[in-house]
Write a structure and sequence with these properties.
Elements lengths: L1 E6 L4 E8 L5 E11 L1 H4 L7 H23 L14 H7 L4 H10 L10 E7 L3 H18 L3 E5 H10 E3 L8 E5 L6 E5 L4 E5 L6 E6 L4 E8 L2 E7 L5 H11 L7 H12 L29 H13 L5 H30 L3 E5 L6 H14 L3 E2 L10 H12 L28
Parallel strand pairs: 1-4, 4-5, 10-13, 13-14
Antiparallel strand pairs: 1-2, 2-3, 3-8, 3-9, 6-9, 7-8, 10-11, 11-12
Amino acid sequence: MIILGIETSCDETAVALIASENGTDIAVLADKTLTQIELHAQYGGVFPNMAKREHAKNLVPLLKEILKETGFLKLKVKSEELKVEEDVQTMLAREPEMLDAFLKFIPTIEKPTIDAIAVTEGPGLEPCLWTGINFAKALSLVWNIPVIPVNHMEGHIFSALLSRKNEISNSPNYLISNKNPKSEIQISNGEAISYQLSAISYPSLSLLISGGHTELVLIKSEGEYEIVGQTRDDAVGEAFDKVARLLGLPYPGGPPLSALAERARTNADSTQTDAEKIRLPRPMIHSNDFDFSFSGIKTSVLYLTKKLPALTDNIKREISLEFENAVTEVLLAKTKAAAERYGARTLILGGGVVANAHIRREFEKMAVELNVPLHIPEKTLTTDNAPMIAAAGIARAGKAGSFETESLRAKGNLRLGAKLTNTLL
């Protein structure tokens, strides 16, 4: 089965083509991600309308590159008008730039041997989600193949279960400049990268942490999810960004803040000052539930920086270290308590914040302590990416006979455990 994966939930446009004969062995034939980080940095966060416009501008070019790279791009001897052109125009009417590119490209190529399209249905920014969904529906209409809706958070779970089988030494990932100088396309070029979808024991517990989400998900059986804990305010990635902003660090704040924390942790360029006395709260660490709250710790950093006579480089490092330690301790405590409460036989980490080196190390230690297998995605799969959406799509396709596309809609607040749009008919 060959699946085209499309991810547009936030500020990364991602398209991938994967193949699997058994649903377990997965080959990523091509994978491209266009990031908009530099475009949104001036706002200190994602500007939805700009993100939507970038998705609309880049989906067709990314698809073209994917098909070309994999040998699926075959030009027709003579271009033909789309038989469903009127329907496509209606579907993409709100995206004139994408519609124009679509009509100029799709009629000129033969239908590729793709079996289905997996697209993110939610959660995410609805204008961004709609762009990817309408693009997928237009392709489905023209190529007469089904669209499989995927929950973005389920995709992050699958990203952790993708274990690389081979290293491609002659075809490394590299960056190619796009026409937009503030964007980059990450390309996995040449041979397919092979993954094994790891088998897990149930019940499993997954901690999903990103800029928009912090939640503990109990996986009772394959595809059966229950959110047992979640943030009551800021997500952990959002807290990283807000604290980084208070320290004068660039957006997104997680990587530079963590880099400072690592320097302080290893005592590099550090001197002993009053910064030793910095202590931040561990929000809700002793509450009798599995929920999180990170708004208060951000406020504590705000008050702290206002009281300090100067925000020196050393104090920035010490605040970064204390903040990262505090957040990690809370994540560990809540996850450990939930794992013990529900008898978790597998632990899974997913989401963009999982790229954090300190969090990865500490969870690896905890898994050893609990004697439970831990699955963490490789760092290239911690971002919002298309292979995870396509992999989740393959899993859904294996359970369904057919999918109905007409009612597929963007669901910005979609939760794991909620009924997806295109269920088995």
